[in-house]
Amino acid sequence: MNKKILATTLGELKSSGYKSKSIKDELRDNLIQKLQSHTEVFKGIIGFEDTVIPEIERAILSRHNINLLGLRGQAKTRIARQMLELLDEYIPIVSGSELNDDPLRPISTFAKNLIAEEGDKTPIAWIHRTERYVEKLATPDVSMADLIGDVDPIKAANLRLNYADERVIHFGIIPRSNRCLFVINELPDLQARIQVSLFNILQEGDVQIRGFKLRLNLDIQFIFTANPEDYTNRGSIVTPLKDRIGSQILTHYPKSIEISKQITKQEAKLSDNQKLNIEIPDLIACLIEQIAFEARDSEYVDSKSGVSARLTISAYENLASTIERRILINYEKKGIARISDLMGIVPAVNGKIELVYEGEQEGANMVALHLISKAIRNHFVTLFPDPGKLKRKKETNPYIPVVSWFSKGNKADLLLHATQNDYQLALESIDGLQSVVESFYPKISNTEKLLFMEFVLFALSEHSLIGKSSLVNGMQFKDLFASIASNEDLFNELDAN
């Protein structure tokens, strides 16, 4: 509807044939139109097409208040915000009303009195759907006055009203959200006595403030979000409140690497220069997602806390910056991701995982490196023969030439800031490495071949066929026994000091 031709008075609104509609009916009707026209309802929500989204649509069709239950980083708030698109573009309110009064169904004393005085001349304002979204983070310090309202002594003094007059009430955020989507994030963190105050609002749609005999038939679509961890660690949703929430919908993490990659690519924020000059091959993108999958199953990470999708998004951004820094230092125009560049995402991983006691003992950095190692190890066997199963089949083991080269005392250094030329020379100097890749992937490009060669090198070290040790500015690969001996010498030296 064009805002320029909307009614400006109550009389014009009646003449236009406008009919009042509850917000739940509004959401329902607009959803029906989108479903019938096969229009995408929730844009950019990947991986929930066959699970979460159908359940949300059923809840909306049922006119239910909704509780989205899931671990952190599962797009709960994003889903709630997208429901805004199911509202009508504009709705009328009594001009000046703080409760968004429907001109045909006023609920506040202000609106009722104004309509009684002005009649069909009552001024009408129109609010856009973007003004009809209210979000509140539940914290233990949220009070009844914040949510519901309280008597305002300053208003009473200024207007010279006694405390029996309804006009002394200062309405809280919920009454002011009349005819809006109202989202309460982390519901279990709300004190139990505050949760109790929501009973009547959810069941009857009315509020009670300081004993006033008022009944405000609020029209609100409630959306709650909660983390299952909160039920045991910080708080809980009181049972009568859960009973009054129509639909509880479980969210989840991406169920496959491919879905997870789509989410990361959509959400990662790269600069125009990074998009233009940096290439992140599919192998590296898969490894980043594999790290998150490993973290969700790791004995060092608190599974109840969850591993947010923000881990892979931040890691992807850090990886791009790692490559960008290297090409800037080397005066190169373009750069392609390497396996060794994954060392640059450690800070992104550190901040996104909650460690259990064993993880704390290991240290965040060591846990992040451990997750990267597991990701390389487990993803490798999906692309190449499992080195662990070939250890006793030397005659058919394609990795023997590489392992033999290192067993002769040879070493290979892969420095994090190496130029593309130095990187290539280091990999090509290792006997048998190129042949391994070419035997399984004969048609890949030269740059992909180098990446796969590096991948094989890292994977052989993770499968304990060759040794790997950290340098100040990179990695050194050598014979496994020489690596163990050098580590023992280091420990002996430390003990001596």
If you had to describe this structure to a student in words, what would you say it looks like?
There is one protein chain. This protein is an alpha/beta fold and 497 residues long. The protein folds into three domains: 3-250, P-loop containing nucleotide triphosphate hydrolases (Rossmann fold); 255-380, Orthogonal Bundle (Helicase, Ruva Protein, domain 3), CATH 1.10.8; 385-497. Helix content is 45%, strand content 12%. It is built from 24 helices and 14 strands. The chain has helices at residues 10-15, 23-36, 52-61, 76-82, 109-118, 144-147, 153-159, 192-196, 199-203, 230-233, 239-244, 257-267, 272-277, 282-297, 310-329, 346-350, 357-362, 364-380, 387-390, 400-407, 420-428, 433-440, 446-462, 480-496, and strands at residues 66-69, 90-94, 124-128, 133-137, 149-151, 169-171, 181-185, 221-226, 247-250, 278-279, 335-336, 412-415, 467-471, 474-478. A hairpin with a 2-residue loop joins β13 (467-471) and β14. α18 (364-380) packs across α23. The radius of gyration is 31 Å and the shape is elongated. The model is unreliable at 484-497 (pLDDT under 50).
What percentage of residues falls in helices of 4 or more residues?
A: 40-55%
Major beta sheet summary: 5 strands, parallel
Total domain units: 3
What does the radius of gyration come to?
31 Å
Side by side, the strands of the main sheet go 4-7-8-1-9
Distance between the termini: 80 Å
Low-confidence stretches: 484-497
Number of helices: 24
- CATH topological fold name of the largest domain: Rossmann fold
Shape: elongated
**Strand proportion:** 5-15%
The average pLDDT value, as a whole number, equals: 88
Known CATH architecture of the largest domain:
3-Layer(aba) Sandwich
Based on DSSP secondary structure assignment, what is the total number of beta strands?
A: 14
At the first level of CATH, the class of the largest domain is Alpha Beta
Look at the helices and sheets and give the structural class. Answer: alpha/beta
Question: What do we call the CATH homologous superfamily of the largest domain?
Answer: P-loop containing nucleotide triphosphate hydrolases
